[in-house]
Amino acid sequence: MKKIFLLLAVLLSFGTLRAAVYGDVNCDGVVTAADVTAIYDVLLGNSYTHETTADVNGDQVVTAADITMVYSILLGNITPEPERGRIFICDNAGWGDMALYAWPEQGLNAWPGIHYSGTTEKDGKTYYRFELSDAYYGHALNYIANNYAAVNGGTNRQLDLMSNYTMGENDIYLTISGSAGNYSYVVDDDGTPPPVVYLHSELGWGDYCLYVWKNAAPVSASWPGEHYTYTKTIDGELWHVFELPEVYYTTSGTNWILNNNNNGMQYDLMQDFSYDHDIYVRVSANGAYTVSGTSGSGSGDGDVVTPTNIRDLDVSNTTALTSKNRVIYEMNVGSFTSAGTFAAAQAKLGDLRSLGIDIVWLMPIYPRGGGINSPYAATNFKATNPSYGSIAQLKSFVDRAHELGMEVILDWVPNHTATNAVWVTEHPEYYTTQNGEMVHPNNYGDVYQLNYNNAALCEAMNDCLRFWIDQAGVDGYRCDYVSSPAIPGSYWASTIPMLRNYAGDKTLTMVAEADIVRDANKLLNVGFDYDYAWNFQSGKLERFGPNGTSASTLQGYCQSFISESQGKSFDRMTYLTNHDQNYNDGGKTIQKMYGANKYAFTTLFFTIYGMPLLYNGQEVGNDQILDYFHDTKINWNSTDAKMQNTIATLIALRHTQPALANGTATTFLNSTNGNVMAYTKTSGNSTVLVLMNLGNLDATATISGIAAGEYDMWLDSSTIASGTTQSDVTLTATSTFSLDAKGYRVLVKK
Question: I need a labelling partner for 676 at 20 to 30 A (CA). Which of 246, 292, 406, 608 fits?
Answer without folding.
Answer: 246
